[in-house]
Each structure stands twice: as C-alpha cells, then as structure tokens.
Design goal:
The complex is a heterodimer of chains A (720) and B (281). Chain A is α+β, with helices and mostly antiparallel strands and 720 residues long. Chain A has 20 helices and 26 strands. The chains are: A alpha+beta (720), B alpha+beta (281).
Chain lengths: 720, 281
C-alpha cells in the first residue's frame, strides 16, 4: 500500500513469521556436524589462575581457550580490559575462562562439572559503596567534571536560605529479552561466519578481526532474527562471537553457543546501579540558586560501555530544567561483579529518577505542588544546555504538561485521593508525574568521529529495491519503518522494498542499532538515498546509491571539557501515573498511566505505540517491581518469576498521546523514540507512591519491603 | 541421551497395582516436578525413578458432594476446580492467583499438596477448612488431616505405594473468610507470604475463628490453641485481645530471608494482615 501519511500504521514486515512461530531464531538453527559450546566460568570473584585440571575428554570433545586466540585476548570495544577467555586473572563470578565443545550438550555439562581450577584468591570489591571508598587506589573507568566552578557554588550555598542534600540510589535492571543470547560460528576455508542475535553487526565484526588477527574479508557477520535487545545485545554478543569464531576455527566445524535463561540472567550485562548526591541551594521563596551533583556508576568487572553510559547519566543530571549555577561530576567504577552494559536509556533513567525525586522532595518541603514547582524551571528553545550547547528546536513541554493536567483532571483528582485516603484504612491512592527528555543519537561527536554511517540502496534489473544497512530489527520495527521511509521516497508500496537480514559482506557500516539513532540517523540517510535513487531511476537497470553521514552544524562537542552540543535533537515526554498502595502489604497497584511524547513525527503510529507501551512498562517496573541483587558477587535472581518483570496483570492500558513537532534532521520529521518511553516510568511511579503515602523515598525500586519498612518507621516515629 | 521409563496406565486400579510393585515418581500436572527435574538447555530432564503419569485418570477427576463434605479428585486441575459450581468461592479467589492460565490448565490440587511447598497457594485455605487427604494403596486406604500429612518442605506422609486420591473439604460456616496472597507481581509469582482467615460470630461473640499463614515457616502455620482461646470473646474484639493474638503469632512465626523477600517483611506483613482481619468485619 502507498499511504499518504507516513504515520499511518501498516502490517509489520516480520509479522507473519513471528505470529505463526515460523521465523527461525538462532537456537532453531541446526547445521551439519554442528558442535555445541559450554563455557567454564570463574567460580570466584577475583583471583589469579594457578592451574586448570580437565577431566579426560572423550573423542570429539575439545577445550578451546586463550591459547587458541590468534590475535588479542580481549573483546575490542573501548578499553582492552575484557578477556575473551580469562586465563590469568578472573575478575567476576561467571567470567568465561575457556569453552568445551562437542556434539552432546549433556556430556558437555558433565565435563564442565568435573573441571578443577586452582586459584589464588584476592579480596574482591563487591559493592559500589566499597568501590567509592577505594576509588583513589584503583578502578576508575571514567571520570568527568563540568559546569559552574565549585568556588562559586560554595559561596552561593553559604549565603543561601537552605541547602538541601540528598543521596539517591538506583538498582540493577535486567533486560529480559524474550530470546536469550545465542551465537553460531561457522568455519569456511576462506572465512569465519558468525550468525546470531545482535544489535551491532560491526561491533561484532571489529571484535572478530581483533581476536582472529585477520583481514577484513576473512570474517563475516549475519544478524539472525533477534527476539529483543534493549541494549543487552549491544556490547555483550561480541564476546560470544569471539568464543564461537575461535572454536570454529580450531575444530573446523560449526559451533553453537546458547544461553538458557538462568545463565543469561547470571552472567550477561545489566543496567548500571548508581548512587547520586544532589545538593541544592534555595532562597527564602524556595527558588533554586545552585545545584551540585555527584554520580557514581557501578561498572562491574570491566569498562565495557560504562564510560559512555556515564556521559549520558551526567548529561541528564539536570533533567529538563534550566538550573542556575549547575555543577556535576561523575565516576564509573570497577567492582568484581558482572559487567554492566548498555540498557535502553543508557544512564539517563538513573539520572531522571534522581533529579525528579530530588525536585519532588524539595517541592514537598516547600509545600508546593511538584509539577507546578518544576514548571518554573523548564528549559525553553534557545536556552543553553548544561554543557553550553543549545536547545535549538521548539520545545512543547509546557503545552504537553498543560494538556495532560487537564486530561487527567489532576487538581480534582488530587483532592479526591486525599479524601479517599482519609477514609480508607487499608488503601491509599496517589498521583505522580515525571518530566523528561532523550538526546537522540550518539553522545557528542560519536556519529561524526566514530560511526561515520554509510547506507546503501540497491536496485536490481527487475527494479527491486533492497535496503543495505547494518541495523537490526530486534522487535522495535526497523524492518518496517526503514522500508516505509524508502518506499515513501520512491513512491512505491513498502511491501516492495526488500530488507534482507543484514550481512557484513553485503551491507556498509551504518552504525550500531542503539541510542535511538536508527530511525533518525539511518532513516535520514535512507530518505536521502531514496530521493537520490528516484532522481536517477532507470527502469530495467541495476543501480546503487550510497549516502554518507553529514554532521549538522552544532556547537562542537569537546569530551575533555564536557562542553558543546551533546546531541543534535531531543525527544520529550511527560508521564502521569495513578497508584493505589496497600499499606498492610506494601503492594502497589497501578491504576492509570498517561504518557505524552514529542518524538518529532511518528513513522508508524502502531510501532511507536508499541515502543511507548513496552518502554513505559519497563520503566515503571524499574521504579517499583524489578529487583535484582548481587550477593558476594553472585546474582541472586535467576528466573523471570523471581526477578518479577510485570505481566499484563500488573499494568493497565497506557493512555498515550503524540505531539507533532517535526525535526528537519530526521526522516519526514522523525526523532528518536526507542529509549524515551522508558525514562519517565520510574520517577512517575515513585512520585505517585510518595503522594499516596506522604513518605519520601530515596531509592528505586520502591519495593513492598521498602514501603513496609518506611511505614513501620513512620508509625514508630508517630508513636514516639 | 538418557531415557526415562514411564507409565501411563488405563485405570486407577492398574496404577495402584504397579505402585505396589515398583517405586515410581508420581506425576500429575508436572508443573512443579518438571521444573525441579529440569536439566540445562538441550539435555533431558533427570528422574532417578520411573515416572507414573496419573493426570489422565478419570477416577481422580471427580468433584462430588457427600453429605456436607466436598470430595475433590486429586487430579482435578485448578481450571476444573475454578469452573466447578460446588467449589467454595474463597478457593476460587485463591486459585485465580495461581500462576497463569496455562499452568492452571495443567496443575492439580493433589499436586499442590504433595509438592508441599511452604508457599503452596491452596494450602492455607485447606488448613483452615480442616481438609482431609484420602490415600489408597493395594493394601487399602486411609484418611489423614492435611496438617498431619504435610511434614515439611517437599515432605509428606505418603508411603511409596500410596497414591493421594482425593481431598475432602468439610463444610465450613463463616461470616467472614479471606485469602491474601502477597507476591512480587500479580501472576506467575510465588507467594512471599499468604494468609487465610475465617470467623463465625454467635450473638455478638466469636463462635469460631481460624487463621493460617503460608511462606513464613517450613509448613503452614496454624494454632488451634489460640483459636480455642478466642472462642466466646465479644466482637468487635477488645484491643487487648487483638494485641494478644498478634503477639502470640509474633512468637511462633519464624520466616527467613531469601531471594524473594526478607524475614522482617514477611513477619510484619503477616501480623499486619492478621491484625486487620481481627479488627475488621
């Protein structure tokens, strides 16, 4: 079909395969003479390997370890501190040390059970708290400090009416993609082919070139249908790809590495736990005079993407507010725990939870409505960012808030809830809001300096158009939205645009599928490519067009001084959530959820609605349900039911609204939409619980355990 | 690959006869057993005994009223119980909170009892109903109270050759009966704590009160002593009486910390639910 309006929803390109269950994910693939791999993982958190004793291996079974790596024994990403096979030092429980490969999984499990490793154990750092105490000695993956000078802040604080300091903590979050991680390495005489579930084909390819010490054309990466990523398949798959590629090269057979749910939950990357200190000076009228922020992220055992996650956390530490005299510094620290990595929002959900909580608490100290108080500080078009960039485009936040307060009948509802709470002994109702943004695309000059995205459109002699990009559809609908963008430019039905599974042999590096950049950045390049193809269209002739990333004219980003435009564009959101809290049990029932978003223009309304519903569910659950803990370096929740992501029973239909605010730099006006909807969930649900109970909380998730502890304490205080 | 010897016999009689000859792992719906016996991905489940399937046996799927008692076949699934008109409503309240429809279509009442999890969702109600368990073997049959049948986590008083055939639910007269399950989410979740309570009033006084707590100890916690002491107390209860009952359970409830919750939370919530029940009508 050719829709007039690109936002009109269409059937997703992968709909039939997924709905019928016919689409083959990597774990459905079986190839001739395929072997399986099972990893031997470190049972200790920190130590030196003294010796390894293997059981006798039956014929057809082999150990694959560091000794088989032709190139570098690290997973190429930012730092070189993540071994492919940890053969000298181990840094966390679950770190892969070597892999046994062979034809039968049950035999492999038994063999791995019989391995004996002797370690010289060293004292490990298990918590962020310990890491903060020891940060001067060791283990700072990244550090940034920027903003107003501390002397100025100090002198403001000295003269202030009041200085409010709060510590705020956020926990782990697990991605719980439906499809656990899986990777297949295939040996061929002239190349190693790796197929699997992934978001970033070229990250994987570059890691393979480094590990195999080979030429560009000796490795090939194909993305298989990917059942959810959420960032969990951004950095992590590169390590598994190295494992299967090295093994396949040694045994000259296909090698499959699949994680079941328990293994996936225990050893794959999580959202960084974080600790914040906010210190805010106010005058007698409650006006904010200055704000000083300190952020610590628990990076886990290796740097991974932590330095970049820290940047986004810092860049969002002032929320959507223009704060006079703002200063921030942050650290990403090493602990001997499972490495933390990319996760939808990438540091921003932690910061928004913290700033929204902090301003909420200040407003209740001042006996002001939190939304009204925060509205005094909203950034406006033309305002500087905290890094002296500029909000260049129109900002609709004020209208979005106004609309939502009316739609939800906020003032009346608050009164009704207060009356209900006075009369009901068991249940207390509350309403809370969050205001947030998401910087679209890579942070800073990443797109220009590192990614340099290239896209290609191919037209066959039969006039069939194929999209050649390295971006994954992981359920978010990229196959469909990118096809729609190209189709619109060519005046063709979107069904006619072909989008084969990305294969590095065939597609240029259009960058990773991350950072809410795919629709906005890659989509824009495809929009340009389509119009170029259309202009030169010759029926019956094979044609090819290529487009390269062009950096928008912005205030140049300087990572050293942490200044300039960190993002070309921003998406915006307002959430309002109503809850009912059972004060006997601390259980929270979500009663209504509103979400208003400005994502420029929707390329497909239903796909965007899917991102909103899923993202908000994930964000709300981050705020009060999903609880993951690590004890002495071991993740405690190994099943989905123990971890407790929400089911349909835990949520209500989400009442969402989009605001049209086309962005010239995005295809047909689109901005990023993937991460934004997650960001506001946690702070809104925390605010709603606080409103219901009239108790402040200083951490998420606000679990029933925390609620009961706080209520008990409040009861005790009242009695004293 | 290991193979698993299994039986799926045509009748209860043949099943009982086979159980007298061979020690088997009896499997009804399998919703707990398959989880307990699963291997890592790609390897078969491990059983050290032959598996005896009983989920298909019609003799174990009846629900009948005999005099004032309700007889529920051990292999009635949660869904079958949920849909049956004779089942007391409060059981339906509890069963609706078990797992999700797919599990409820497989899981059975007999299985929930024999699995004997401290967090078993049907157990607190079965305790306060004074449910009886009927067991049969080639040697005969016996009936035992649920509180005597369940010995500890995953331990029940069932002999090798015995099979649990039915659950007998005596009629319970109550003016108020509640069931509360507290878990980390509203479906597919294991209870952090559960509570069942019932109360019958006679002329402004307590005729009978019963309470049971799940997931706060190795087995369901119920005290006939304290229930006896409440008999005849004027209702609404004097605050001192309420405090006394709460203080009593404060002493006998001994929950643990685990990956699902904390001991402190479990105890506090158990006592809060109890107090609320005693103070409300």
């Amino acid at each position: 079909m050719i829709a007039k309006d690109i936002s009109t929803s269409v059937k997703k390109k992968d709909h039939d395969g997924k709905i019928s269950g016919q689409l083959a994910y990597i774990s459905d693939v079986k190839v001739d003479s395929m072997l399986y791999g099972v990893l031997y993982r470190s049972p200790i958190a920190y130590g030196k390997v003294r010796s390894i004793r293997l059981p006798p291996l039956p014929e057809g079974y082999e150990k694959i370890g560091a000794e088989h790596i032709p190139g570098n024994n690290f997973v190429k990403l930012l730092h070189n501190d993540q071994p492919i096979f940890a053969n000298e030092w181990v840094n966390y429980i679950g770190e892969p040390m070597f892999m046994l490969v062979g034809p039968k999984l049950d035999i492999l499990y038994q063999l791995v059970d019989e391995v004996e490793v002797d370690f010289e154990e060293h004292p490990a750092i298990f918590t962020l708290e310990e890491a903060i105490k020891q940060k001067d000695q060791t283990g700072v993956f990244a550090y940034h400090e920027f903003g107003e000078s501390l002397d100025v802040i100090k002198s403001i604080e000295k003269k202030a009416h009041r200085v409010i300091e709060e510590v705020y903590e956020t926990g782990y979050q697990e991605h719980v993609y439906l499809e656990p991680q899986g990777m297949l390495g295939i040996y061929k005489a002239d190349e190693i082919l790796v197929k699997g579930s992934m978001q970033c084909l070229y990250y994987v390819k570059n890691a393979l070139i480094s590990a195999l010490a080979c030429e560009d054309d000796e490795v090939r990466v194909i993305q298989s249908p990917t059942g959810g990523g959420f960032g969990g398949k951004e950095d992590f798959p590169s390590m598994m790809a190295c494992h299967v590629a090295i093994a396949a090269k040694v045994v000259k057979k296909p090698v499959m590495l699949l994680f079941d749910r328990a293994e996936d939950m225990e050893v794959t990357t999580k959202r960084h736990p974080a600790k914040f200190t906010y210190r805010t000076a106010i005058d007698e009228q409650g006006n904010i005079l200055s704000m000083n922020v300190e952020v610590f992220l628990d990076g886990g055992a290796n740097a991974g993407l932590s330095p970049v996650v820290l940047q986004r956390a810092l860049l969002n530490s002032s929320g959507v507010y223009k704060i006079p005299h703002f200063h921030a510094k942050g650290y990403a620290l090493k602990t001997n725990t499972v490495p933390n990595g990319a996760f939808r929002g990438f540091g921003a959900p932690q910061s928004f939870a913290a700033i929204e909580s902090h301003l909420g608490h200040i407003s209740s100290m001042l006996k002001r409505d939190p939304i009204q108080y925060k509205r005094n500080y909203l950034v406006k078009q033309g305002d500087p960012t905290i890094t002296n960039g500029r909000f260049r485009d129109p900002i609709l936040l004020e209208d979005m808030i106004q609309d939502l307060l009316q739609t939800a009948d906020y003032t009346k509802k608050k009164e009704a809830f207060r009356a209900f709470n006075q009369q009901n002994k068991r249940f207390k109702k509350g309403i809370g809001a969050s205001l947030f943004l998401h910087g679209c695309g890579f942070t800073g000059s990443g797109e220009r300096d590192h990614i340099k995205a290239v896209v290609k459109l191919e037209k066959t002699e039969q006039d069939q158009v194929l999209i050649k990009v390295s971006n994954s559809d992981m359920g978010q609908g990229a196959l469909t939205t990118l096809s729609k963008i190209v189709a619109k430019g060519l005046d063709l039905p979107y069904e006619d645009i072909l989008f084969p599974d990305p294969d590095t042999k065939d597609v240029p590096d259009s960058g990773p599928t991350v950072a809410s950049r795919t629709t906005m950045i890659v989509g824009k390049l495809l929009e340009r490519a389509a119009s170029q193809l259309k202009a030169g269209w010759q029926s019956g002739v094979a044609q090819e067009v290529v487009e390269h990333y062009i950096h928008e004219d912005m205030i140049p980003w300087d990572e050293e001084t942490f200044s300039g435009d960190a993002y070309p564009a921003y998406s915006w959101g307002v959430n309002l959530i109503e809850v009912e809290v059972d004060i006997l049990t601390g259980s929270v029932r979500i009663e209504r959820v509103y979400g208003s978003f400005d994502i420029g223009r929707a390329i497909d309304e239903r796909i965007v609605k899917g991102q909103i519903d899923g993202g908000m569910a994930q964000g709300i659950a981050y705020g009060f349900m999903e609880k993951m803990t690590s004890q002495l370096g071991k993740i405690q929740q190994k099943t989905i039911s123990d971890y407790g992501p929400p089911t349909a029973m835990d949520l209500v239909p989400i009442e969402s609204k989009l605001y049209d605010n086309p962005y010239a730099g995005g295809p047909y006006g689109a901005k990023g939409a993937g991460e934004l909807p997650l960001t506001g969930g946690a702070p809104a649900v925390q605010a709603a619980i606080e409103d219901a109970l009239q108790i402040p909380f200083y951490q998420i998730p606000v679990t029933p355990e925390l609620i009961i502890e706080s209520l008990t304490k409040k009861d005790g205080d009242a009695r004293d | 690959m290991g193979t698993v010897l299994s039986y799926r016999l045509a009748s209860l009689e043949e099943t009982i006869a086979q159980l007298s000859r061979e020690d088997c792992q009896i499997m009804a719906g399998g919703t707990d057993l398959m989880v307990q016996h699963k291997s890592p991905m790609g390897a078969p489940a491990r059983f050290d005994k032959p598996v005896m399937f009983i989920d298909h046996l019609k003799e174990l799927k009846q629900i009948d009223q005999v005099n004032q008692d309700l007889h529920i076949g051990a292999c009635c699934t949660y869904t079958e119980i949920l849909e049956h008109p004779l089942i007391p409503n409060i059981f339906k309240v509890a069963i609706k909170q078990i797992a999700a429809p797919a599990i409820r279509n497989r899981g059975t009442l007999g299985g929930n009892i024999c699995n004997a999890s401290p967090a078993g969702d049907t157990l607190p109600l079965l305790y306060i109903f004074n449910a009886q368990i009927r067991l049969r073997s080639s040697k005969g049959e016996r009936v035992v109270g649920i509180q005597d049948f369940i010995l500890g986590p995953r331990r029940v008083d069932r002999l090798r050759e015995e099979i649990l055939t039915e659950i007998i639910l005596p009629e319970m007269l109550a003016d108020r009966i509640v069931f509360e399950k507290v878990a980390n989410r509203r479906a597919d979740a294991i209870a952090k704590i559960s509570f069942a309570g019932s109360m019958r009033l006679e002329g402004g006084r307590v005729g009978e009160a019963r309470f049971a707590f799940g997931a706060v100890g190795p087995t369901i916690v119920r005290s006939l002593d304290i229930e006896q002491k409440l008999k005849g107390e004027a209702f609404p209860l004097d605050p001192k009486v309420v405090d006394g009952v709460v203080a009593y359970f404060d002493r006998i409830i001994t929950p643990i910390d685990d990956h699902r919750s904390t001991a402190a939370y479990r105890k506090t919530v158990a006592l809060r639910l109890l107090r609320h029940f005693l103070e409300t009508m």
